[in-house]
Amino acid sequence: MSFETLLSPVRIGKLEIRNRFVVPPMGTNFGNPDGSVSRQLIDYYAARAKGGFGLIIVEVAAIDPLGRAIPNQLGIWSDDFIPGLKKLVDEVHKLGAKVAIQLHHAGRQTARGVIDGQPVAPSAVPCPVMKDMPRELRTEEVYGLIQKFRDAAVRARRAGFDAVEIHGAHGYLISQFMSTHSNKRIDKFGGNFLSRMKFPSGIVKGVRQDLGPDFPILFRISADEKVHGGRTIYETKATARLLEEYGVDAMHVSICTYGSMHWMFVPPAVPQGFNTDAAAEVKRSVTIPVIAVGRIHDPFLAEDILLSGKADMISMGRASLSDPEIPNKVAENRINEISPCIACLQGCVGNLFNPDILKVSCLVNPLTGREGVISTEKTGNPKKVVVVGSGPGGLKAAYVAAQKGHDVICYEKSSVLGGQFRIAGIPSTKHDILTAIKYYITMGRKYGVTYKLGVEVTTKLIEIEKPDVVILATGGVPLIPKIKGIDNPKFLKAIDIIDGKSEVGEKVLVIGGGMVGSETAEFIAERGSTVTILEMLPTIAKDVPDGPRIYLLARLGEYGVKSITNAKVTEFHDNGVTYLIHDKEEMLTGFDSIVLAMGSSAYNPLEKELKNKVDEVYVIGDAMKARKAISATEEALKVAASL
Domains in the chain, start-ordered, CATH in brackets? Predict the structure, then answer.
């Protein structure tokens, strides 16, 4: 299949862009704490320009210090930011991409700890997520903010940007003014549709006046806010028509607000391209180009969206994190070499909202955010490398080490590659995980990795191989705590059920309600069994990111899975358990099958034995400590790139 449309040039106003691929303005938090451009941010965007993206929209740039949403958000409220922004623009331009910047104000969707003050909003209605009570903006302050957007746009042009995007989506300030969900005013800026549109219209008209008729203005909008009383697609279509009249040159159609954030970062349970029909609806209402976004990871899907007339350009957000070279690989017919987004949310959303990290990365491609500090260029000192284990860490380490020119053998004790990561991809909504395994194997074979299956590595085998380096990626094993009666041979392990090695009866008790236990319960219930989860924490699926958790809990409810929380098992019986709940002892019996899903522990039998036999021994992933898969791939990259 050719990708002629996806690779063809397109115009936004008079701006010609080399193809239809767009990097949307995702908050990376790569800026400096003072809002200036960092080297990390430049390296990040340069990698995507080098990878062939036609248009790069630089992430949220605050037009006012009180408008920041994240700690290291870019600033554009002062001329002091122009030199740094110009460096970024110049680097992107050298690599052939056009670059816009998104002008942003968070409004009520921020926190006092970020802005060191009280948030402001159209009305004193708090965000359901951030919860801080905002101060209602006075009418003269609203006019002042319109001027700040105008001033920011002028700075963007002075910095060399090819376009600006006005952020009117995702429940931020402009969106708050447009939406009846958050705008309760009855002055010039609220009370009816045209009054709610006065704030965005003032911004667009002002920017157009300041920058002239030929400077492109994009507008990002949530087609459906997915909150009670919020804007739906029907009003969005009318809004888009008005925005075109006011001077907008392209519509970037997204979805949701903070109050419906599970629609912003959707998991694999939500189909690819889920928001495309909304883009198509907007496109039918305007004559300007429309950019579609929303879990569009596959170039085949992207080409079809364009060919069917649903949109004119395609934003690949998380996909551009997992592979900054998608456009080049499509152009060079290297589709199998595209590093896939598996919508796991561990590196992009999980890292961004982790207070100990606060910067995005990617499980499949942990080079994201480290483009300028980690190199995979060929080494001048090739070594023999043995990788033990073929989970995500082992496969990643093997292919990166081979890419650097080392002689790599990857051993796997089972008959198929992938380790427990492969098993994690078996449930019905987790198939995307298998695309990552497929990608790692494809790249490993390209660079010459030798895979040996059905071989359990021993010290004697290592002595025969005589490697310079051993990377132990042996993963973890199911945790079996010391509880009376737990060693019953009838009891099953969650991993064996999903892998098809064990079968359950009609009535099943799953012990452990974390991600593994909850997904196993769903897997069993989907096949007709009645399932109960017993979990010692107050809630089940506590270790699942908020967005995917909403969808997982909904599916568990659909299948009738019951859960008992705050329950600590004290004894196992042949067909049930005794447990404590709120210091009261209870018994649960009558089950045909009991499934253990109580966590994992590190499995690392070789490290001590090899320390004095091999010059370099490294332990990565769950073999070191049972954690999320992103830890394994990050450690794999770090070790393999250092060889």
Answer: 4-352 (3.20.20.70), 384-478+602-642 (3.40.50.720), 492-598 (3.50.50.60)
